[in-house]
Amino acid sequence: MKKIIFLSLLAASLSLNAQTIKSKVLKLKYTTPESWTAVEFGGLLNWDEKGNEMCRCSGIAFSKPHKDGKFNVVIYAVPNGGLDSTKREFIGALHFENVDKVEKTTNKNFSFEKRRSNFYDVRAKKTSYNCIRYISKVSDGHCYVIYAWQENMNLLNSTAEKALTEMVNAIEPL
């Protein structure tokens, strides 16, 4: 009997940690890996209304504490024709420095245009964190822009990139 109670409690705690969230507003679902948290922001009807200090748009901010600097993944939902909006090139005061080199990559959920670069901190007026930007177009015409970085001034190492990729891979279209 004790084993049954213990196994039931263990299963319940594991299911709480690996809960799948469906965001009908953003047309996404995601299961946060261990230690990651997620916060949705933005409008309920229009992806270009409301927002927060990161962007006056809709999206999800994922984060995970780490001894060498917090991991961050931010996904912005982009309405049809809105990909050229400059507001989605920023995460708060951090501006993505665009580069010409583009990698085409896929995971089980998306095909991406992937660019590696840095953020430029417009407040401090200096280059900031190394980051990766993914852009994915979905079949109905809207897009997602995903930024992944570690709050560390060193280049992304393979361990950090693996943790960030794990979070990106946990995001799926509805």
Characterize the structure shown:
With 174 residues, the chain is an alpha+beta fold. The chain has one domain: Protein Transport Mog1p, Chain A (3-Layer(aba) Sandwich), CATH 3.40.1000. 16% of the residues lie in helices and 40% in strands. The strands form two sheets. Strands 3, 4, 5, 6, 7, 8, 9, 10 and 11 form a nine-stranded antiparallel beta sheet that branches. A three-stranded antiparallel beta sheet has the order 1-2-12. A hairpin with a 4-residue loop joins strand 1 and strand 2. The N terminus is likely disordered.
Q: So how many helices?
A: 2
User: What fraction, in percent, of the residue positions are helical?
Assistant: 10-25%
Major beta sheet, specifics? 9 strands, antiparallel
What is the element string, with H for helices and E for strands? HEEEEEEEEEEEHE
Question: Can you give the mean pLDDT?
Answer: 84
Spans of at least 5 consecutive residues whose pLDDT stays below 50 are 1-16
Structural class: alpha+beta
Shape designation: globular
- Looking at the structure, the CATH topology is Protein Transport Mog1p, Chain A
The whole-angstrom Rg is: 17 Å
| Name given to the CATH architecture | 3-Layer(aba) Sandwich
CATH class: Alpha Beta
Beta-strand fraction estimate: 35-45%
Number of domains: 1
